[in-house]
Amino acid sequence: MAKGPYIVRISSQKGGVGKTTIAVNLATVLSMLDYKVLLVDADYANPSVGFHLGLENVNRGFADIGAKRVDPKSVIVTHAPTGMHVIPGRVGGKVVYPSISQIEWQFKILREENYDFAIVDTAPGILPFVENVYLKNYDEAVIVTTPEMASCTSAIRLAHVYDTLGLKHSLVVNRMRNKRYEISIQEIEESYEGSVTGAVPEDEIVPLSIAEHIPAYLLNQRCGFSEGVSRASKRYAARVGGRYASKREGMSLWDRLLTVLGLRKRNRVLASVEKEEEE
Amino acid sequence: MKKASLLTLAALAFLIASAMPAAGSATQVNASVTVICPFTVGVGARSVYPRYGTVTVNYTASSTGGCALTPLSGTFRVINESTNKVVYSAGVTIPRTGSQTYTSNITFPTSNMTNTIYIANVMFSAGGFSTSGSNTFALVNYADVVIESFSAPSTATVGSTMSFTISLQNTGDTASGPIALNFSISGPRSYNSLLTLSALSPGQESNTVIILNNVTGVVGTYVALAAITYNSYGSTQSSTSSSLSYTVSQPVSSGPQPVINPPSSGGTLPPLLQIPQVNFTYMPLLVSGGRNSTTLSQIGFRNSGNLTEVINLTVDPAYSSLLSLSTDTVNLGPNESVSVQAYFTPGANLPTGVYSIPIYVTARYQGGGTASGTGYLTFSVYSQGGSQPIVASQVALTNNGTVLSGIISIIAPNNQGLRNATLVQWLPLSIAKNISDISVYGLSSNIVIENNSYKISSKIGRLPRSQTIYEYYSIKGPSNPSSLLRSRYAIETLSPESPQEVLRLAGISAPAIVGNTVGTITASVLYTGTSPSNVTFLLVPSPQITVQNETQKALAFPNQLITKQFTITNHPKNGTYILQLYISAAGANLTYGVPVVINPVQPSNPSSGLPYLPLYVRIGVFIVLIIAVIALFKGRAIRQRYSPDRAGTLIRMREQIKRES
Ligand SMILES: Nc1ncnc2c1ncn2[C@@H]1O[C@H](COP(=O)(O)OP(=O)(O)O)[C@@H](O)[C@H]1O
Ligand SMILES: [Mg+2]
């Protein structure tokens, strides 16, 4: 039996913290690192992955796999610039919540496909009544939060749900602005019982990327946002192993120095991908 | 495959349960005590099955106690997920095999099932305890490829080209396999071909255009038939065939009419004109020309005797408006060669078709008397600049008839290019003694013998609109040249592939640069065409951004990744600018808007300040910078102030959440 993808649930208890933004860019970095990635928009009510990728006009989505009569292969599209596969959400049409067995069946299909990662972008919270049944299908949940009280408390609440259900989880802090009044990474690390895998700054590249329909990481790999996402991505890459999985915690001081001096010519991720291609 | 509840305790429980009836009834003391080996059961099923015929799933029982499986019987059920109704049930068994696992297939019909999700469940019960396993699958419609439309003009004139369009769509739920299209024509002339079209995914459509000459050669009514077969989930499916008819008639016109002269009897044309002592160095057999244009051909003679010969040529007066010769008398000295130009000028309104124009020849050769006869020059007339591709040909005999050479030109319609087309030509088997006597060049071709013909298939990858591509062929020692006038050709155009499939943007980096500096944009494309092609990159500058190497080219081989770098300089105006990047290769092009972010000039930017300072100052600045960077690095963590209060609040909330749930 094929080992199936490492299925990651991108989640938050609170809306608008950047789940979709993180999901899309995490998937982008992983595919640029040569992993086979399937990005799934499972936010049945408000699908928005398509806006980041220029795939907002597809008329079939993840919900349709659960509904009858659809060949799973027919809802998978390839995102040309990265080559990753995407099951976008159906932006138009009415909201269809799947039944438990439909969800079971959706995951069965994800497991059958030959990907390294399935990155599943979800709606805020956990779909009521069915959580314990379907959460076991995930290998890990990523909790996205912003550095402020309400969002952090919600993240801790979600972490508790995952703990009681036995699902491994990790935390990405998004939209950091380095302000005094902001909750610091140190405070989050003290209160969150799990590993903080990413600290991603607030960056203008994100709204620009949505307007351009190009993942922010592809627009500019050297900006703060991309470096934050890229660092987090490599930690997730380490979950499945492979050449690019980095166990190093972020950028070395030397890297930072070279970057500030403008001497570090190219993004290392891109450079290593290009080197691969030349061979 | 999913595992269900364990039977670990079942063995023990069964011992107790089977002992109970003995206490309840004195007459049933013969209850046997069986020890059941604990096991799990799983069901194997695909996620989708087409709803026709039968579905086969399997179940596997695996011992969890390290013991051989106990023989048992159980039940297999198929349950409709939405209604919870059992739609199929059957007994299943685990026989005595002595091994620790057992797998068996179960096949059930789908005739009374609908397209929805089902649960396949296997349950074994013993002594009040049960173990079961289940799996989910969906029934969907299999591929259903239909001929959406099959069309062609319903009337045509003799000798004109016919174009047939066949549109297919997969209206089923699963992808089809490759589709075999059987296309045939019956009537005064017949035609048959089998094409393989690519597979169609659900909802996908395809168009196939078949262009034929020689299916309008004779007046009458013709019937064309299209039928398809394909494979879906291992079963061969076919569509109902689709047919149409068309009528071929003589065109209504007062001028010359297309006609094959002279009317052939028994399928053979009269032999070529022979003149004693005179060789034809070039004798056109068939020339194609567009309406309202002049096509030049020639008749070449050589005197092989040792006396002067005089030859007179006259075009049949009925066709004098169509064909004119540069001279009507040729004086040929010994060993002399001469060519007579033949100008073929079809008028704008001349009916399209094939014209055989008689040329009367008298030769007074001094060796002894007069010879006279009729030669035929055959012209085919097409209308230019239409929406259909045109196949034009020139066939001539050279070297006194020892070599036959032909040029086929394919002209793309002026409103649309041709993509993935195949030119098929059938030459009568009698034309050459051996397949090796035929050579084809110009296009990538292959020759096979099929149905009493040499079949030459040539690939046209892409031909832009209104452009012409040529194929040349020559036949050594042609044995019956006039039979070539009967040769047929066809263009089979499969539906165009989407251009993105040939060029794929693999990566693009767009820099954020500081005002008045130099940056690079790197673009990589994967070329997946079938033959090598030039790939051209064009990055269009904008008023704010100058591109130093706007156009770059590279030869790409199939599946090669091409990376190009553009150097850009900007004027110091902040903002985001989109530069258009065009990438093109044979058969494809891509456009991409590359955003370039220009940040304001920072006076303290070290990379622009350093080069002007003496070395010791630079070293000093470097050390200060290292310290600054370390400070920055450290400062990052402390910029947001750590507050024990806030951390405490969060921890208190965490504990409260834990307590209250
Ligand atoms: N790091 C960031 N910097 C700037 N804007 C961001 C960042 N992350 C998210 N955003 C903005 O926040 C909004 C909500 O993000 P989104 O990813 O859709 O959140 P969610 O999926 O959690 O609802 C988007 O409009 C996006 O532009
Ligand atoms: Mg979202």
Top keywords for this entry?
A: 279 residues, alpha/beta, Rossmann fold, 8-stranded mixed sheet, 12 helices, disordered C terminus, B: 661 residues, mainly beta, Immunoglobulin-like, 12-stranded mixed sheet, disordered N terminus, binds adenosine-5'-diphosphate
Structure, described:
- The complex is a heterodimer of chains A (279) and B (661).
- Chain A has 279 residues and is α/β, with parallel strands linked by helices.
- Chain A contains twelve helices and eight strands.
- In chain A, strand 3 and strand 4 form a beta hairpin.
- In chain A, helix 1 packs across helix 10 (224-240).
- Mean pLDDT of chain A is 79; it is low at 245-253 and 262-279.
- By secondary structure, chain B is mainly beta.
- Chain B has four domains: 2-139, Immunoglobulin-like (Sandwich); 145-249, Immunoglobulin-like, CATH 2.60.40; 274-492, Sandwich (Immunoglobulin-like); 499-599, Sandwich (Immunoglobulin-like).
- The chains are: A alpha/beta (279), B mainly beta (661).
- At the A-B interface, helix 4, helix 6, helix 7, helix 8 and helix 11 of A face strand 8, strand 34, strand 42, helix 3 and helix 4 of B.
- Residues 12, 15-21, 48, 174-175, 200, 202-203, 206-207, 210, 225 of chain A line the site of adenosine-5'-diphosphate (ADP).
